[in-house]
From TrEMBL, chain A:
Pfam families: Bac_luciferase. It comes from the Bacteria. Keywords: Flavoprotein, FMN, Monooxygenase, Oxidoreductase. Residues 36-313 form the Luciferase-like domain. This is LLM class flavin-dependent oxidoreductase. The keyword Oxidoreductase applies. InterPro entries: Diverse_substr_monoxygenases (IPR051260), Luciferase-like_dom (IPR011251), Luciferase-like_sf (IPR036661), NTA_MOA (IPR016215). Belongs to the NtaA/SnaA/DszA monooxygenase family.
TrEMBL record, chain B:
This is NtaA/DmoA family FMN-dependent monooxygenase. Residues 25-395 form the Luciferase-like domain. GO terms for molecular function: monooxygenase activity. Pfam families: Bac_luciferase. Belongs to the NtaA/SnaA/DszA monooxygenase family. Keywords: Flavoprotein, FMN, Monooxygenase, Oxidoreductase. Its EC number is 1.14.-.-.
C-alpha cells in the first residue's frame, strides 16, 4: 500500500422513524404502521449490517417530535411518537452480530446511574457493540413531563440568559458522562473471583466507590453491573458550536459535526482538536464524523425530483442542521472524500427515507467506497471499539 | 359438585443476588452474561411458563460498612435484558422489578410501553418501593422520601404511569399515506397530573401498546402493601409458600378486592418457591440438605447471625456454639441495602430462642443457620413435587408459583423436563400457549382504553 493511500472511512447511519425528511413516512417503502414494532427496526439494522457499517444510532427524545426547535407543535401530518431508543437497540442486538448499536440518551432528565447500567447491559447483550449518544434538551415542555426542574423558554441562542441555560445543560451533560464512565470502571475486570475456599464471590477491593460530587448531582457507586465487555462503551455526541465541541473534546469518542464544506470541516476539527489538547486528551483517539442527510438515486436529477416531491408533500422545503446531499452514490463518495480531506474520519449519514436511502447506502455507496479502497470489505473486529480503532482501555481504578 | 380444577400459573425467577443462589456449584454459570438469560428464558418458554421474573437492586448491599461479598454480587439492567430476551422468545412473559422511588413516571411509562411494543404484549412491572438514603446516594435526588410516604408515592407513581399509558387510546395513528394524516388529532398523548408527589403535564410520546398497560405486580406484604395490591395490581409476588400461611394470605388479600369493585380472579397470588428434585423423595431430601450446606458456608452463617445480632461476630467460630452476647437493638443496622432488614422485629427474643434450639440439638452456628433458614419449598421426586404444587393451588394457598432455582442458568431444566409434563398430564397446566400476550397467559382482561374510544385497529404484522 502506498504511504499516501488515505485511511478507510468510517460509516454510520442515523435511524429516526421512517427517515429524516418529515414527509418520508408517505413514501410507499416507508412502512409507517410498523414503526412501533420490533420487526421494523430489526429490518433496518440488519440492512445496515449487510453494508458492513460501523454502527447505527437511534434518535430519541422525552417528548413528541416537533417541527419547532424548542416546543411541541400541533401537527398531525408528521410522525409523532417513538419507542425508547435503548430498548430498541437491545431488542435488535441478539438479531445482529457485528454492527455497533448507539441509542440516544437525554442527560437532562434521566439518571446517570440507570443509563450507565443500561448501556453496560447493552454491551453485554450485544457482546461488545454498545455505545451511547448523549444529548441535552432545553424544551420547557419536556421539563414539565418530569416536573423536577423548570427550563426557561429560550427565544434566541444569542441572549446571555439563554447562553447560561445552555452552558449549564452542557456542564451537566459533561458531569453525567463522567459519572457514567466512572461507573463502567467501578468494577475491575477480575472483581468476580468465586473463591470457594473463603466463600467470597467478589474481591471487594476491586469494587470502587466513584464518589462523584458535582454542581448538579452526586453519585456514590459502585455500579450494580460489572464492567462491560468493551470496558468503556462508545460515548458520542452531536455538536454544532463551541460548547458542545468542548463536551465532545472532553468526554466523547466520536463527535458528529455538520460542516457545509471541507474548509468548514477543517475549522471545526481544528477547534475540537485544540479543545481535546486543552482537556489533556491529545493522545487519545477522538473521531470527528460529518453528519449529512442523504437522498440517493441513480441520477442527481432523480434524487432532486424525489426531494422536491417530499418537500411538496411536507408543504415546505426540508432544512435542518446538517447539509442535504442529493445525487448518486458515486457523487456522494466524491463528497465524502472531499470532506474527509478536512480531517473528518467518518460520516453519520441520515437517510431522508429510511426504506429507500438506507439500502442505497449499503448497496450502492458502500461498494463504491470499497472500489476506492476507502471502506472495509469485511468486519475486521468483534467489538465496536475495535471497528473504530480504539483499544480496550485500562480501568481508571485498577492499581497500575 | 366438586370445584372445577384451577389452572396453575408458573413463572421463573432468574437466580442472581439471592442468598439461595449457589454460585460455588460446578454447574453454576454467569449471572451477567446474556447467554445465561437466553438459556433460562428458553427453558421457561419450552416449559410453557407464564413469565420470567427479574428482581432489582440499586445499590450493592453492605454489611459492617463493607460490600457484602458472600452472595452473588451484581446484575444487569432489568429493562435492557428484558428487551433483548424479547428477541429470543416468542410467548414468554417478561416481568421486571422497577423501583418507584428512584425513577420518574414519564420515563418508566415510556420504557414499559416500549417493552410491551417490542415484545408484542408480554411486559409486566413488579412495582417496588424503597426509601433508604443508602440507595439514594446513587441518584440525583438522594434518599428523599420518608418511609411512611413510600406507598403513597408508589400508588401515585402507578396511577400517574397508568394515566400516561391511557393517554393514547389506541386509535390515534392513521398513517394514511394518501391523505397525509399521520395522527387522528394533535392531542394524542395529552396528559395532566397534579398530585402530592407528581405535578406533570404535556404529551406522552409512546402510542398505546399491545397490552394497553403492562401487567402490574406488587410484592410488599405490609397492610399498606396488601391494600395497594388489592386496589391496583394484577398479581402479587408473595412470600407465603407454606400451605397454612398461603391460605391465610390468599383469603385475606382476595377478600379485599370487592372493596375496589374487583373479582377474586382479577388478582393472582404467586408466591416465590424453591425446589430440589431427586429420582426418589429420599434422594431429593439428601440433595436438599447438601444444597443447604452449599448455600450456607461458615462465613455466610456468621454474616447471617450478624444480621440478627446487629454486631460484628467475626471472632466467632461457625462450627462452635452461638454467641453468648445479646443482639444490639438500634435504629442503625449493620446491614444496608437489603429488603429483609425489617423481618426480625425482636432480635433479642430470636437470639434467646436460637440459643435454646442450638443447645437442645447440639447445633453449631452453621447448623443452626442451615436448619432455621429457608428450607426449600418443594423437595421430592417429580411426582411428589407435581402433586404438592397442584394440591397447594387447588386448596387456594396460591394461584401458582414463581420458581427460584438455585443454579444459574440450568437450574430450571429438570423442573421443565420432569415436573411440567406431569402437571400437563393432570390437565392443570397448559400443554401449549393459547394466547400471545402475558395477559392471555394469566387470564387477565386487556384493560379498556379510556371512554369514548373506537376499537384499536389491527396491528400490522412485524
Amino acid at each position: 500500500m502506498s504511504s499516501t493511500t488515505p485511511a478507510p472511512l468510517h460509516l454510520a447511519v442515523a435511524l429516526d422513524g421512517t427517515g429524516w425528511h418529515p414527509a418520508s413516512w408517505r413514501e410507499p417503502v416507508a412502512r409507517p404502521r410498523d414503526l412501533f414494532t420490533a420487526g421494523y427496526w430489526a429490518d433496518l439494522v440488519t440492512e445496515a449490517e449487510r453494508g458492513l457499517l460501523d454502527f447505527v444510532t437511534f434518535e430519541d427524545g422525552l417528548g413528541p417530535q416537533s417541527s419547532l426547535l424548542l416546543a411541541p407543535d400541533e401537527r398531525t401530518d408528521q410522525v409523532r411518537g417513538r419507542l425508547d431508543a435503548v430498548l430498541i437497540a437491545s431488542r435488535v442486538a441478539p438479531l445482529t452480530r457485528r454492527i455497533g448499536l448507539v441509542p440516544t440518551v437525554v442527560t437532562t432528565h434521566t439518571e446517570p446511574f440507570h443509563i450507565s447500567k443500561a448501556i453496560a447491559t447493552l454491551d453485554y447483550v450485544s457482546a461488545g457493540r454498545a455505545g451511547v449518544r448523549v444529548r441535552t434538551t432545553a424544551r420547557p415542555d419536556e421539563a414539565a413531563h418530569f416536573g423536577r426542574r423548570t427550563i426557561p423558554r429560550i427565544d434566541g441562542f444569542d441572549d446571555p440568559d439563554a447562553q447560561q441555560v445552555v452552558a449549564d445543560l452542557f456542564d451537566e451533560a459533561a458531569d453525567y458522562v463522567e459519572v457514567v464512565r466512572r461507573l463502567w470502571d467501578s468494577w475491575e475486570d477480575d472483581a468476580e473471583i468465586r473463591d470457594a475456599a473463603t466463600g467470597r464471590f467478589v474481591d471487594r477491593d476491586k469494587l470502587h466507590y466513584i464518589d462523584f460530587e458535582g454542581r448538579f448531582f452526586s453519585v456514590k457507586g459502585p455500579s450494580i453491573t460489572p464492567r462491560p465487555p468493551q470496558g468503556q462503551p462508545l460515548v458520542t455526541a452531536l455538536a454544532h458550536r463551541t460548547l458542545p465541541y468542548r463536551l465532545v473534546a472532553r468526554q466523547a469518542d466520536i463527535g458528529y459535526v455538520t460542516p457545509r464544506d471541507a474548509e468548514q470541516a477543517r475549522a471545526i476539527v481544528a477547534e475540537i482538536r485544540a479543545e481535546q489538547e486543552a482537556a489533556g486528551r491529545a493522545g487519545e483517539t477522538l473521531h470527528v464524523f460529518g453528519d449529512l442527510v442523504v437522498l440517493l438515486d441513480d441520477s442527481r436529477a432523480e434524487a432532486e425530483a424525489r426531494r422536491d416531491r417530499l418537500d411538496a408533500l411536507a408543504g415546505e422545503p426540508y432544512t435542518g442542521d446538517a447539509a442535504i446531499f442529493t445525487g448518486t452514490a458515486a457523487q456522494l463518495a466524491d463528497l465524502l472524500e472531499e470532506l474527509a480531506s478536512g480531517g473528518l474520519t467518518g460520516f453519520r449519514l441520515r437517510p431522508a427515507v429510511a426504506g429507500h436511502d438506507l439500502p442505497r447506502i449499503t448497496r450502492d455507496l458502500v461498494p463504491e467506497l470499497q472500489r476506492r479502497r476507502r471502506f472495509r470489505d469485511a468486519y475486521e473486529a468483534g467489538t465496536l471499539r475495535g471497528l473504530l480503532g480504539l483499544t480496550r482501555p485500562a480501568n481508571r481504578y485498577a492499581a497500575a | 359438585m366438586s370445584k372445577p380444577l384451577k389452572q396453575i400459573h408458573l413463572a421463573a425467577h432468574f437466580p442472581g443476588v439471592n442468598n439461595t443462589t449457589v454460585w460455588s456449584d460446578p454447574a453454576a454459570g454467569s449471572h451477567i452474561e446474556f447467554s445465561s438469560f437466553v438459556h433460562f428464558a428458553r427453558t421457561a418458554e419450552r416449559a410453557k411458563f407464564d413469565f420470567l421474573f427479574l428482581a432489582e437492586g440499586l445499590r450493592l448491599r453492605e454489611q459492617g460498612g463493607q460490600i457484602y461479598d458472600l452472595d452473588v454480587v451484581g446484575r444487569p439492567d432489568t429493562f435492557t435484558v428484558l428487551a433483548a430476551l424479547a428477541a429470543v422468545t416468542d410467548r414468554l412473559g417478561l416481568t421486571g422489578t422497577i423501583n418507584s422511588t428512584f425513577n420518574e413516571p414519564y420515563e418508566v411509562a415510556r420504557q414499559f410501553a416500549s417493552l410491551d411494543h417490542l415484545s408484542d404484549g408480554r411486559s409486566a412491572w413488579n412495582v417496588v418501593t424503597s426509601w433508604d438514603a443508602f440507595t439514594g446516594e446513587n441518584f440525583r435526588r438522594g434518599g428523599f422520601l420518608p418511609q411512611e410516604e413510600r406507598y403513597s408515592r408508589a400508588k401515585e407513581f402507578l396511577a400517574t404511569a397508568t394515566e400516561l399509558f391511557d393517554s393514547w387510546r389506541g386509535d390515534e395513528i392513521l398513517a394514511d399515506q394518501a391523505t397525509g394524516a399521520f395522527l387522528r388529532d394533535a392531542a394524542a398523548g395529552a396528559f395532566v397530573h397534579r398530585g402530592q408527589h407528581f405535578d406533570i403535564h404535556g404529551r406522552f410520546n409512546v402510542p398505546r401498546s399491545p397490552q394497553g398497560r403492562p401487567v402490574i405486580f406488587q410484592a410488599g406484604d405490609s397492610e399498606e402493601g396488601r391494600e395497594f395490591a388489592a386496589s391496583s395490581a394484577d398479581a402479587i409476588f408473595s412470600r407465603y409458600a407454606t400451605l397454612k400461611e398461603g391460605q391465610a394470605f390468599y383469603t385475606d388479600v382476595k377478600s379485599r378486592l370487592a372493596r375496589y369493585g374487583r373479582r377474586p380472579d382479577q388478582l393472582l397470588i404467586l408466591p416465590a418457591a424453591t425446589f430440589v428434585l431427586g429420582d426418589t423423595d429420599q434422594e431429593a431430601a439428601e440433595l436438599a440438605r447438601e444444597v443447604r450446606r452449599q448455600q450456607v458456608s461458615g462465613a455466610t452463617a456468621i454474616k447471617h447471625l450478624e444480621f440478627v445480632w446487629n454486631r460484628d461476630l467475626s471472632a466467632y467460630d461457625p462450627e462452635g456454639p452461638l454467641p453468648d452476647v445479646d443482639p444490639v437493638v438500634s435504629e442503625e443496622h449493620i446491614s444496608r441495602g437489603r429488603a429483609q432488614v425489617r423481618m426480625y422485629r425482636d432480635p433479642v427474643a430470636i437470639a434467646r430462642e436460637w440459643r435454646q434450639l442450638a443447645e437442645a440439638n447440639k447445633w453449631s452456628i452453621r447448623d443452626l443457620v442451615i436448619n432455621t433458614g429457608n428450607r426449600q419449598t418443594f423437595i421430592g421426586s417429580p411426582a411428589t413435587v407435581a402433586r404438592t404444587i397442584n394440591d397447594f393451588v387447588q386448596s387456594d394457598a396460591s394461584d401458582g408459583f414463581i420458581l427460584v432455582p438455585h443454579i444459574t442458568p440450568g437450574g430450571l431444566d429438570p423442573f421443565a423436563d420432569k415436573v411440567v409434563p406431569l402437571l400437563q398430564e393432570q390437565g392443570v397446566f397448559r400443554a401449549d400457549y393459547e394466547g400471545t400476550t402475558l395477559r392471555d397467559h394469566l387470564g387477565l382482561a386487556h384493560p379498556d382504553a379510556p371512554a369514548g374510544t373506537e376499537p384499536a385497529p389491527e396491528r400490522a404484522a412485524s
